[in-house]
Automatic annotation (TrEMBL):
This is XshC-Cox1 family protein. Residues 15-81 form the XdhC- CoxI domain. It comes from the Bacteria. Residues 169-311 form the XdhC Rossmann domain. Pfam families: XdhC_C, XdhC_CoxI. It comes from Salinicola socius. PANTHER family: ALDEHYDE OXIDOREDUCTASE MOLYBDENUM COFACTOR ASSEMBLY PROTEIN, MOLYBDENUM COFACTOR INSERTION CHAPERONE PAOD. InterPro entries: MoCofactor_Util/Proc (IPR052698), XdhC_CoxI (IPR003777), XdhC_Rossmann_dom (IPR027051).
């Protein structure tokens, strides 16, 4: 499934190239319950045609109606939806949450097309950029930023939106934990790729919406399947799969690398990776082992939950003691 942000920018480019003004909108902040996270995008035309979502359907009808009525004519504006919005549309979200939305009205000129092309290339690329917007001056530019951290940051009139390739999870090897891990990650919007050369293991692995690769995970990882928004997890307890995957994973820009096993098993694996894999201490330190948050997990589903939660922790730039 195509990354939703990429679908939004594809539509924005198509409409802008056709000479139509567009409204590119981003969720800046959520308060209380909300079905869409900060950074979520929507693009719309004056006739109400749109791609993407701001709230999962709670506010879109009102928002698109206001565009049709001639609202949001300023180049940049911030609108609040939900309870407590004093100067913004009083639309109550069924979930009881509040959304702050950046509305960026773009005219179909050369500057807009260049801006959208950079967004498009970034979403298809290997690393993230930060889209920096000054609400007071209207200036918009792209700057380098770290890969991990919040998708949206605001300091007064300065808004910073992190954009980049879709989050990807490579699962090295099939096990009972792998299935739950794939299901959780897919639900959270990850592109999920499962690698296992064993035909019998693949035959019994049934998860919709994931990509299956019938090769050794190490070969797939080493062939350039990762970018800076990739997490790699090895979940089989089989050193022939897990260890080789880790040796290749530490040579990639993946933001999360982890392998399943007890503390004692992890200590033995670290010794093997140094002795047989030739990894140094810096490479070993990149590997989360034991993998996942310490939730005292027992069942495959609980272990998978701990793994995916830890992946999100690292992506959000949170240390363990902040949880």
């Amino acid at each position: 499934m195509q990354h939703l942000d990429l679908q939004v920018i594809d539509a924005a480019l198509e409409w802008a190239n056709a000479g139509e003004p567009i409204w590119l909108c981003s969720v800046l902040a959520t308060f209380g319950s909300s079905p869409r996270e900060p950074g979520s995008m929507l693009v719309a035309k004056a006739d109400g045609t749109h791609v993407g979502s701001l709230s999962g359907g709670c506010i879109e009808e009102d928002f698109l109606g206001r565009i049709a009525e001639g609202h949001f004519d300023d180049a940049l504006s911030v609108v609040r939806y939900g309870e407590g919005a004093d100067e913004s549309p009083q639309v109550s979200l069924p979930c009881g949450g509040i959304l702050d939305v950046l509305v960026d009205r773009l005219t179909p000129d050369a500057a807009t097309l260049t801006h959208l092309e950079v967004l498009h290339a970034t979403l298809l690329g290997q690393r993230s950029l930060v889209r920096r917007i000054d609400l007071e001056s209207g200036r918009k530019r792209f700057v380098e930023g770290g890969e991990n951290g919040p998708r949206v940051e605001r300091d007064g009139q300065i808004i910073q939106l992190r954009v980049g390739p879709a989050l990807r999870l490579i699962i090295a090897g099939i096990s009972p934990v792998s299935r739950f891990c794939a299901e959780f990650a897919r639900t959270l919007g990850f592109e999920v790729i499962v690698c296992d050369p064993r035909e019998e293991a693949r035959r019994d692995f049934q998860v919709e919406g994931i990509e299956m690769q019938s090769v050794l995970p190490s070969l797939f990882i080493g062939a350039g399947a990762t970018h800076a928004a990739t997490a790699i997890v090895a979940l089989t307890h089989d050193p022939r799969i897990d260890d080789l995957a880790m040796i290749e994973a530490v040579r990639t820009p993946a933001f999360y690398i982890g392998v399943m096993g007890s503390k004692r098993t992890s200590e033995k694996r670290a010794e093997r990776l140094k002795r047989s894999g030739g990894l140094d201490d810096d490479a070993i330190s990149r590997i989360q082992m034991p993998i996942g948050l310490n939730l005292d997990s027992k069942t495959p589903a609980e272990i998978a939950l701990a793994v995916v939660a830890d992946v999100l922790r690292v992506r959000r730039g949170k240390s363990r003691h902040e949880l």
